[in-house]
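Q: What changes when coenzyme A is included in the input?
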Amino acid sequence: MTDEGPSREGWSRRRSPATDHNACPCGDNPSVSDSLPIDLGDVVLRRVGPQDIGPICDYNALPEMAEYQRWTTTQLRDSVEAQAESDHPGLALWAVVLKAENRVVGDCQITIEDWETRQAVIGYSIHPDYWGRSYGTRAVRTLVDFGFGTMNLHRIFAGTDPRNERSVRLLERIGFRREAHFVEDFLVDGEWVDSYVYAILQKEWSEGADA
Ligand SMILES: CC(C)(COP(=O)(O)OP(=O)(O)OC[C@H]1O[C@@H](n2cnc3c(N)ncnc32)[C@H](O)[C@@H]1OP(=O)(O)O)[C@@H](O)C(=O)NCCC(=O)NCCS
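A: The predicted holo structure follows.
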């Protein structure tokens, strides 16, 4: 990944929320971060603040993190800054904070793509020093719960590089279905790469929770 060269918008980092939110699924008080912080025991999910932008950009730019991403470091910083400062009701960027170290070890975001049909895209990343401790799975599960519960979304989707096995396993573990395999739909640093699209419906999520 470099700061130069052709690069299309990444799956979620660069998504802008739909602007027409007259049909907001969240009712009269559509601030998607109202429920924060969410305490998960050893970690807490809270809104990203200005002090988090540097750390989030730093770990996301590590080679093992950036390997399958479609943004440049410049795009990443611009996007995180804009999301952190945004009060847009269709956008939530959360920090995953490890209480014991008072450290931001990850981040996840949900962005409304279409208010009318209640569709949103999610993204997520965990600092590689903290992989394999369930933070990613628990954060994304909570985010999706929030999307279907508080935001009353109909469908949540995520895009990932098929080679990104950790991300694929995470999505499948929490019940997302693979809906699409796009072939060479991204050009990253001169190389054509594929994409998977995963999605889950509100009713499928509820059925999973009941199971
Ligand atoms: C994808 C990503 C978010 C996963 O985060 P994570 O915190 O490592 O995820 P988890 O810890 O919940 O799960 C990872 C593995 O650890 C295992 N695990 C979780 N808790 C565990 C525990 N307490 N003991 C043993 N194993 C555990 C999980 O079962 C999972 O195993 P698997 O991958 O073999 O199925 C992370 O790898 C990442 O940030 N990647 C780079 C950014 C990225 O690709 N984002 C997605 C863009 S589309």
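Observations recorded in class: Residues 135-148 form the longest helix (14 residues).
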